[in-house]
Amino acid sequence: MFLWNEKAIRIIAGPCSVESENQLLTTARKLKKIGVPILRGGILKPRSRAHHFEGVGEPGLKWLQEVQQELDMQVAVEVGTPRQIEFALQYGVDVLWIGARTTVSPFAMQELAEALKGVDVPVMLKNPVCPDLELWTGAVERLVDTGLGKLSLIHRGFSVLNTIPYRNAPCLEIAMEMKKRFPFLTVLCDPSHICGKRELLQGISNKALQLGMDGLFIESHCCPASALSDAAQQLTPEALEKMLERLGVCYIEDESNNGFNTSCCLSEHCKS
Fold first, then answer.
1. What is the CATH number of the domain that holds 157?
2. 239-261 burial, b for 16+ CB within 10 Å, e for fewer?
């Protein structure tokens, strides 16, 4: 597991997009070597504009199965529709995440919440693209109300008019307010989407950990220069390892804390 200031934190890393079998396995092997227990990888990418690379689809899920079998890593993918949830679960995906462009819609969130009824898989929920605390809160409530038992949050910044020098405004105070409202939920920081540039990642990651966030959800690619999406914000696994060292994050062998092996029971917390 990873420790920062003697606190156990979660590190989830992997490419923005799954592009090829070789790219995925090369990246995964290197991340496994530095202790990352969960590989994130975009299979179906909801891009802001049309005609951009939007993922490889089903072949990517098969390659993720290879990662599970060869490296004993858990794998996480983004889902935005009930059909995508069904598809991911058919391929044995370990962790699902719901992206910012989905969280922003109460209609979409209600459909996903209904589709997740009875599903015993961890779900990570990103903040909506706009800085709306109530919208993020409502998305959590919809998931909890349908009985989801394993939920955590990802803070990836917000789209506002002026975000310079970042890609998305950090607004870290909103993430901290969510921790106050839902103290039983793990909150990770996604510095990749906040920063948009790899040279800014360490500063935001440090601020997030100093504020008490519970880990990082970060993009890593074996060759960022050739990435088909978000090339400027991805780190090589080697660069990620060095950044974690500079942050004071250390890795120790502990199989009992490898990935999503434990989670809180949301229904019990919500009753209290």
1. 3.20.20.70
2. ebbebbeebebebeeeeeeebbe
